[in-house]
What does this fold into?
Amino acid sequence: MRKYFLTFLTLAVCAISFAQSTTSSTSQSDKSGVIRLKGKATQMVMPDIAVVYFNVNAKEKTEQETLAKLNSQTQALITRMESLGFKKEEMKLGNYQIYENYIYEGGKQKKSGYIASNSIILKFKFDKEKLSNLFGKIMGEKSENISVNFSTEVSKELQQKTSTQLVREAIKDASIRAKTIAEVADLRIVMIKEVNYQVFNFRPMPIMEKSYRMEADTDMPAPAFSNVDVQEIELSEEVEITFQVENLMK
It folds into this structure.
């Protein structure tokens, strides 16, 4: 069921705005003025996209050995994901870096080898069972030097669908309030003079804030996604409308 929460400007604020606008218009006509107010609508939406960030690390004595190990671990991770039904187009390579590693011995800095890392970003239609299988498989194999973070997003399709409905509700909100103000103040709405609309940006929300790092000797269990509810994301739209009004008082 869709849930809409309408938030309005108070009557006092709108009345002040109207009084100021009417005053500025009296030089042209003693009977004309404007009511300017904002209509807003919000809706809680269940995210439909799961985003899993894998960070793969490798550390060896030489640069060549480090890169070889990193590539081997990365390919193994991709192969495991493919075996679970994830498609290659759902996976993207992210940041990559390699640098020299130094340690201190006897108060002196000494080069001990190289550290390399890269990331794989997996995006797919949110599915609790599929997500649980993914983490269960990876953690069950005790993957070495892989950390995982996950979040959720609202797809562009769902954003657009929700935004369209919210804009309608926001305009309806503003129109209802304008009519109420006009009736109380003995005014008549002549026309809509101006509409201002600003697009809102939607940010991804985390499912869990904890980062999981899997080492070769860990017995950490996979997170129980089946027992966790995904956090809903609040989407909102706001429309500012200026109504031209006419004073009916003689």
